[in-house]
Amino acid sequence: MWMAHRVVHQIHSERALAYLLIGLAAALSTLLTNDVALFVIVPLALSLHKLTPLPIRRLVIFIAFAVNAGSILTPLGNPQNLFIWQTSGVSFARFVGALAPLCAALMVMLYLLTAAAFRARPLDLSKDVETHPVDRTLVGVAAVLFVAFVLLADAHHAGVGVTGVGVGFLLWRRQIVLKIDWLLLLIFVFMFIVLRSVAALPWVHDVVAQLGLHTPLRAYAAGAILSQGISNVPAAIMLAEFTQDWRALAFGVSVGGFGIAIGSLANLIAVRLSKEQGMWLQFHSFSIPFWVIGGIVGGWLVLHL
């Protein structure tokens, strides 16, 4: 709320605010991964909505698109990129150079769609009448514990780190732990387990093997389409066994993050964080056309670059 209060007094229209949040979400996703970027930007958007009326469902949907598009750029942007980067053996710079055209094309598409979907009307700031204090003690303790957890995880003691953080907050600020959306985390874990299991089914492997993914376009199309059924991370892991064209595969599973919501688990996170009714129909009314057009653009890039 503290950040939202300052943002709304620097931005003067609904469309400009959408531009800002989409750009910020895309930028953060290149380094923090698409999922983590959502945990930063969606709560900011919801706080902004409390200060000024916004088309919040549409805004959250476009933020989900932004993290999926922006995360394409780097190996750190999403799990499938990290996997493909590690298995391909290419340098960080080469990976970024190869994926940059697709990232740029999808971001241009997204900004053009944003210009059409959001109006340039002034923001109504009549609700912004309260002060928004910051709990500096909580911020400081959380920052220290975050660093401690990362260091422990890097030393292969993630279990000790997460237990320490959890017990510490339960003893000090129990409400912090109780407010966590545990159902969202469980959905994320179980979806990943189920989708990985589907990808490992023998008949699924047999079908993919018969496709003959020996050309870039076939590898690309397989990634874009298979992601619609089992999500793009399991699709990348499975298809890597059948093609050596890491660039075409990365393009395919990146485009596959759009379309049906399950294409990227980031989509499910965004919808869940929004807590808005009627999200699914509106999400797919934007995402499926975006996937179709993005798929055509991505296929052209695979063939001509």
- What number of structural domains do the residues give? 2
Q: In sequence order, what are the helices and strands, one letter per element? A: HHHHHHHHHHHHHHHH
Strand content: under 5%
Largest sheet: none
Mean pLDDT across the residues is 89
Radius of gyration: 20 Å
How many helices?
Answer: 16
CA(first)-CA(last) distance: 44 Å
Question: How many extended strands?
Answer: 0
Shape: globular
Summing up helix and strand content along with how strands pair, one would put the structural category as mainly alpha
Low-confidence stretches: none
Q: How much helix, percentage-wise, in residues?
A: over 70%
Question: Care to describe what's here?
Answer:
With 305 residues, the protein is an all-alpha fold. It folds into two domains: 2-127 and 181-304, no CATH class; 136-180. It contains 16 helices and no strands. Helix 4 (56-70) packs antiparallel against helix 6 (92-117). The longest helix is centred in the middle third of the chain and has 26 residues, at 92-117. The mean pLDDT is 89.
List the helices and strands and how they pair.
Elements: H1 2-8, H2 14-32, H3 34-51, H4 56-70, H5 79-88, H6 92-117, H7 136-154, H8 158-172, H9 174-178, H10 182-199, H11 202-209, H12 216-230, H13 232-239, H14 246-255, H15 265-274, H16 279-304
Helix pairs in contact: 1-3, 2-3, 2-4, 2-6, 3-4, 3-15, 4-6, 4-15, 4-16, 5-13, 5-14, 6-16, 7-8, 10-15, 12-13, 12-14, 12-16, 13-14, 14-16
